[in-house]
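Renewal narrative, Specific Aim 1. Our central claim is that a sequence can be written position by position from structural information alone. The example that follows is taken directly from our test logs and has not been curated for this report. It begins with the structure tokens describing the chain, in the order in which they were read.
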């Protein structure tokens, strides 16, 4: 059975990539390509909606899909823990609904974030530096926010990280007590480094995106998951079967 896909934000970089992948796969077909000036009603009668818009628009796209009973895959940044909690509460009244949120479709990024959660309970000094192309409108990135939130979960018994002088603007934005420093500049696609400081040593877990082709496998995994899952699924790590953040025993 072929899945008809409506791609919202189709004219953007990720939208164009997703459109090409959908067109290439025999079990998917493009139902509608929806741009910023197009009416959202163009998603009507789709089997799956893919949201690749911007943070200020994403929630309205998800609401439109849910109102029509259409599963939705969200690849837009900006879904913080608070926004996800609100969506989770809404989905309790819609038991058949399906939403999959993937802040980053890169397999390597998902693995790097998972590794960071394994290290998090063992270091009290942790900071994130993330760099993206100059056109990226949101900061911190969705990947950095999710990494910090998962570090916070992993450190539930250890407590907040040690982040001195956090009243200074140059110290970055804190998420789950983890300082995040965002760079937006030419010549960069996407990079993230999580730095851990301990007594007499440091550890760095880094990931660099060199090409948009790194997203292709994750997009296809997410598309297939979105048409099969029910409820709310957050993160490519869940779709890859990576374990939940571990707490120190």
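The sequence written for that structure reads:
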């Amino acid at each position: 059975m072929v899945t008809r896909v409506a791609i919202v934000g189709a004219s953007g970089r990720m939208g164009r990539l997703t459109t090409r992948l959908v067109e290439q796969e025999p079990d998917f077909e493009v139902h509608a390509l929806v741009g910023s000036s197009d009416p959202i009603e163009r998603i009507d009668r789709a089997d799956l909606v893919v949201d690749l818009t911007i943070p200020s628009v994403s929630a309205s796209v998800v609401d439109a899909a849910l109102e029509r009973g259409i599963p939705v895959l969200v690849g837009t940044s900006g879904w913080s823990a608070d926004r996800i909690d609100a969506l989770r509460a809404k989905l309790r009244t819609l038991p058949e609904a399906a939403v999959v949120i993937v802040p980053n479709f890169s397999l390597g990024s998902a693995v790097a974030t998972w590794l960071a959660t394994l290290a998090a309970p063992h270091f009290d000094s942790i900071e994130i530096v993330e760099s993206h192309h100059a056109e990226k409108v949101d900061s911190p990135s969705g990947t950095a926010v999710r990494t910090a939130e998962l570090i916070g979960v992993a450190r539930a018994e250890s407590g907040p990280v040690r982040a001195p002088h956090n009243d200074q603007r140059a110290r970055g934005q804190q998420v789950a007590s983890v300082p995040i420093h965002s760079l937006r500049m030419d010549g960069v696609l996407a990079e993230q480094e999580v730095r851990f400081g301990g007594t007499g040593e440091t550890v760095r877990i880094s990931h660099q995106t060199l090409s948009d082709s790194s997203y292709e496998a994750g997009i296809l995994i997410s598309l297939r998951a979105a048409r099969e899952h029910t409820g709310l699924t957050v993160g490519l790590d869940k779709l890859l079967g990576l374990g939940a953040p571990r707490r120190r025993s």
